[in-house]
Backbone:
């Protein structure tokens, strides 16, 4: 279990740095950031697949393409939201995705939820209302963008479940990275801004941090029970809030912190309750 905790800390810290760099680089067009985020992971992922002689095209190609498009939409909307919201707030709101995933699973996969899970979902949404209703600093455009991003992230979870175990996880991720590289590259041509100096390093590091965040999270889930490991994902919120405060000078009101705490507490409890 100690090793799983260490892996999750490394994973969440990697994702926190990636999100913070995206926030710092928000003066670049969104799809240019998407391009750099995905091309780094694509190179690393493809190398892994080829070295281990894994069939690169996989089996369930149609659903992997759907997953890639939904993931690309979620990523783009989230990156856009960082132009308007403190990075810690955006990350917290993006974690509403499991709620939408559960609703999609009920509607599309005919899965069932416990009554207490519905109550926890309502409590999490109440946290969103506290964030927006009592904190005038929460930008409405940013809020709508990140909520839309979490909806598409929830759809991604259901599509991955639909794909099942017939395809290697790295192949599924690689479809996403390939799609992001191609579409992000094409859509950024018209308003491309050539990076200068340290921006090159930060942009190229996005894919590396994202890749290792994914790898170490997968390793953690492989060696420990899901209900013990999954709540540790929310350490990312703490890391990101701290980075936002010390790097970007983000200021969180008491209502913001209460809203974020409500969301995270509800979702962690849901993970624990859902696995019992």
Residues:
């Amino acid at each position: 279990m100690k090793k799983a905790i260490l892996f999750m800390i490394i994973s969440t810290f990697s994702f926190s740095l990636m999100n913070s760099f995206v926030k710092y680089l928000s003066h670049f067009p969104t799809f240019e950031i998407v391009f750099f985020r995905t091309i780094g992971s694509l190179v690393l992922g493809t190398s892994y697949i080829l070295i281990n002689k894994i069939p690169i095209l996989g089996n369930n190609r149609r659903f992997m393409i759907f997953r890639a498009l939904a993931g690309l939409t979620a990523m783009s909307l989230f990156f856009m939201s960082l132009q308007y919201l403190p990075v810690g707030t955006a990350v917290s709101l993006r974690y509403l995705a499991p709620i939408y995933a559960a609703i999609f699973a009920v509607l599309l996969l005919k899965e069932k939820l416990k009554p207490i899970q519905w109550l926890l979902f309502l409590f999490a949404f109440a946290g969103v209302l506290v964030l927006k209703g009592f904190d005038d600093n929460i930008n409405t455009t940013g809020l709508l963008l990140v909520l839309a991003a979490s909806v598409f992230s929830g759809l991604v979870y259901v599509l991955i479940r639909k794909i099942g175990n017939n395809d290697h996880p790295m192949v599924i991720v690689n479809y996403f990275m390939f799609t992001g590289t191609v579409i992000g590259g094409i859509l950024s041509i018209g308003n491309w801004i050539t990076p200068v100096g340290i921006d090159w390093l930060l942009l190229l590091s996005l894919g590396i941090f994202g890749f290792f965040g994914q790898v170490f999270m997968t390793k953690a889930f492989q060696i420990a029970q899901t209900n013990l490991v999954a709540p540790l994902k929310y350490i990312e919120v703490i890391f990101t809030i701290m980075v936002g405060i010390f790097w970007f000078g983000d200021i969180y009101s008491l209502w913001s912190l209460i809203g974020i705490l409500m969301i995270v507490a509800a979702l962690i409890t849901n993970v624990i309750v859902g696995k019992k």
Observations:
- The mean pLDDT is 89.
- The two ends are 19 Å apart (CA to CA).
